[in-house]
Amino acid sequence: MSCAGAVASCSLWWLRTGAPRPLAASGRRIGVRLCSSGMVTDNINRAVVHRILRVDHAGEYGANRIYAGQMAVLGRSSVGPVIQKMWDQEKDHLKKFNELMVTFRVRPTILMPFWNVVGFALGAGTALLGKEGAMACTVAVEESIALHYNNQIRTLMEEDPEKYEALLQVIKKFRDEELEHHDTGLEHDAELAPAYAVLKRVIQAGCGAAIYLSERF
Asked: If 0-12 CB within 10 Å is exposed, 13-18 middle and 19+ buried, where does residue 75 land?
């Protein structure tokens, strides 16, 4: 195995097992109520939960727009059904976070119109490089999201794993599905995209900025 391959394997193991940095946040705690989904909505750290849900809602919305852009270009190609399958899962993710935003009364990020345009442009732009470009985008984005979900899992585990059990189950499930998308991208020649390493770094830098901004605004 090459050095790069070994690093990639270690990185994937780390993402799957999770050893992330905690998400720093503080907030007031308030008295215990369960919603119909089994989520605890009272006596929680609202600042942490609102921050998690706001950024995850924005991220899943952005992912939907990326896949919409890819399908606009490659929908009728041989890889169209593969992209559609991943997009359908992202639609389910977004639907769930839409529900949780209402349950916990969370304000969406004010940047939603921006992510609408940027997400579609990123999906369509990388798809114009061919299926390899689209899959390289998928690998970069899904790896970033999985890392981010691992950070959130660590944060909630440190807060109170029993209290946040239902939310943890949602995040873990979605994390695992994002990693499946990551693997699908690699299986469909993502690494053959033009300037793959550079493209991946640029996209992941953008993902990092999007996460930072969506958590805060």
From this structure: middle
pLDDT digits (tens, 9 = 90+) for 149-189: 999 999 999 988 888 999 999 999 999 999 999 999 999 99
Tell me phi and psi for residue 192, to 5 degrees.
-90, 0
Cite the DSSP H helix spans in the chain: 3-17, 46-74, 80-103, 112-127, 131-159, 165-187, 196-216
Specify whether the CB–CB gap between 112 and 96 falls below 8 A: no
Q: In which region does residue 43 sit, left (phi positive, over 0), alpha (psi from -120 to 50) or beta (all else)?
A: left
Report the distance separating Cα 56 and Cα 114, nearest Å: 16
Six-digit token pair at 10? Answer: 């270690």
Residue 196 φ then ψ, to 5°: -55, -50
Q: Which of 117, 60, 115, 113 lies closest to 88, judged by CA?
A: 60
Put simply, whether the predicted model's pTM sits higher than 0.85 gets the answer no
